[in-house]
Structure formats: structure tokens, C-alpha cells
Amino acid sequence: MSSIETLYLVFIGTGFAVGFGHCVGMCGPIVVSFSLHLESKRVLISNLLYHFGRVMTYAVLGGVVGITGSFVRVTAGIAVLQKAVMIFTGLMIVVMGLSMGGWLSLGRIFGDHYNPDGIITRGFGKMSGARSTAAYLPLGLLLGLLPCGPVYTVLITAARAGMDIQPPFKAFLTGVGLMVSFGLGTIPALLLVASLTKMNWLRSRNVIYKIGSVLMIAVGIYFVIKGIQY
Amino acid sequence: MSITAVSAVPVQAAETDHLSMVNCNIHEHACTRELLNSKVTLDISPKPVKAMTDLLFRLTLTGKQPAAAPYIDLGMPGMKMGPNQVSLQARSKGVYEGSGIIVRCPSGKRIWKAAVVLPGIGIAEFIFNVIY
Fold first, then answer.
1. In chain A, residues 85-104 whose CB comes closer than 8 Å to chain B
2. What is the residue range of B62's domain?
3. Contact B93, B99 (CB under 8 A)
4. How far is A183 from chain B (nearest CA, A)?
5. What CATH number does residue B79 fall under?
6. Which residue of A has its CA nearest to B53?
7. pLDDT one-digit tens code per residue, A134-184
8. Domains in chain B, number
9. pTM above 0.90?
10. pLDDT, tens digit, for every residue of A187-222?
11. How many cross-chain Cβ pairs, A to B, lie less than 8 Å apart?
12. Do A59 and A173 meet the contact criterion of CB atoms below 8 Å apart?
């Protein structure tokens, strides 16, 4: 087994460990917020699409960093976009929290539990036309850009590998492979978190739903503040 | 280069107040720890030490030398960030250098740990603030 193949395995393992130790805390609120808006039977497929999109974005970042061999230049180039994505994510979680608590009509943006005539539904619906499970793929593509320490760490390795590997296309593929390995490793933990939202007892208790809504709003505000500070 | 010796008392990993774990003012000067019969001095440049930029890590060892090339594990106390190692190359006897990057944590936490791994000797930990 080559050293690069070994690295792929290392980063699958890293993704798995980081997933349970880091992503659950940082990204768990995101998957919980949109999973709670889904019918139970659509949670798995929606989350898989979300993660597929997220890993696709990781792959592109890994490829770019691999081919350029520069972590600093690439991350500096996307820093403003990452800031915007973090703020957007926070606002999205706040909106979903408000909706889940019954304080705002979200409608069918990401699910079909709520009033389809809501103001936000109409606005988002016109903008994206995405009223189905498929909306989770572009969401994952976008949120894959969220600033994340462990993602940066893998990108540094991709950049180092890129500097050592020729030709450039091989460096690109190595960067893609490293980031995909890491991304795949993170999925089990986040799927597990999402699957918790399918529990009927959780969905059927109004008080828990309300508490969850307030927590989501708090987390969303936290994301917005951190995004502004980023 | 001014050098400040810091306590050789082991860092308590379980300590929750990470700020109190800081044992190195890396923005101002190199830091030194004693490990067995070796003195381990770590310096990072350019200063002040900022995240998401290319950094030069310089290690100076006096006393017992490691059995193999030393390296640095970068991480945050109490938070898994994935493996971020700085490979060090010997520049002269007891002097090693390598380039690396400290990443930025979106949580805003700025306390980072550089664990200098010296094969055959042990691990010297330097905990410091990083500018975001």
C-alpha cells in the first residue's frame, strides 16, 4: 500500500473520530435543524444528499489545494465566501427554529410539514424552486464551504501532498481523494445525530419541540455572530 | 533572541480552563521546556504568530539528542482538529526547522498546543495564544 493510500485510510479514520468528537458539536445543530422539518421517512435520503453535496465541495477544495500546492492562498481566496456561508447558515437555523416553534410559517422549503403559503416559503420557493428532497444537495454543496478547523487540517495535508506529487492532475486527484476520505468519515456521526430526530416521542412532545426551537435559535444566533467575527 | 524558561510541570489535559494552560508567550519570544536531560526551545516566526499563514517552526535542543527526527503535533487542547504535523529537518547540531500552518477554529478559540515529539526522549508541550 502506497503512502498516499495509507493517508486515505488515515483520513477516513480521522473523519470518523472528528465526526463524533467535533462535527457533532459544531455541525450537529445544522443537521438537526433541517432534519426536524422532514417527514421521518425522508430524513435518511435528505441527509445523504446533503452529505453528498458537502463531500463534493470538500473534493473540489481538496483538488484546488492539491493542484496549487497552496493552502494559504486558496483559503484566503474563499474567506469572504466562508464568512457569508456561516452567516447564512446561522440565519437559516434561526428561521427554522422560529418555524419549528410555531412562531413563523416556513412551509415547504425543506419539507412538507408547514404552511405552503408562508411568506418565507414563497420567497425561497421562487428563488430556488426547490421544494423537494433534492434541495439538500445544493444545501450540502453550499454548507461544505463552512469554515471548519478539521477541514483545514486535511487541506493542509492535501497542499503538502500536492507539492510533492507530479503531474499536476495527479496532485489534483490526491487532494480530491484526501478530502473525500475525510468527508466520508464524518458522515456516520452526523447521520446518527440526524436519525435521532426521527424518534416519534421527540416529535410528539410539544415542550421538547419548543425547547429545541429556542436552542436552535440560540445556535443560529451563535453562528451569525461567529460568522460576523470570522 | 530572548528565551524564557517555563515550568516543566506537566500540563493537565483534563483542565477545562484552557486559558490557564497557556505556558508560552510565543508572540514575544521563544519558549523552553526541560525534558529529562534535554532543554527544548521552540520558536515560531513570523511574530506575532497568526493562524492561516505559513509559519516557520524552529526547535533547538541541548543535552540528549533524539533517536530520530523530531516533529511537532499541532492541536487545540480539548478539541480534536485532525492530525496536523510539522516535519522538522536538521539545520545544524541540535537545531531543527520546519514549516507549518496553525488553522483557525471558527468557534473563536485561540489556544493552541504544539507537542514537540522527541523520539527516545519524550514530548514537550507548548501552549500559547494564536492571533486570528
1. 86
2. 3-7+16-129
3. no
4. 12
5. 2.60.40.1930
6. A72
7. 888 998 999 999 999 999 999 999 999 988 888 999 999 999 999 999 999
8. 1
9. no
10. 999 999 998 887 776 666 677 778 878 888 998 999
11. 59
12. no
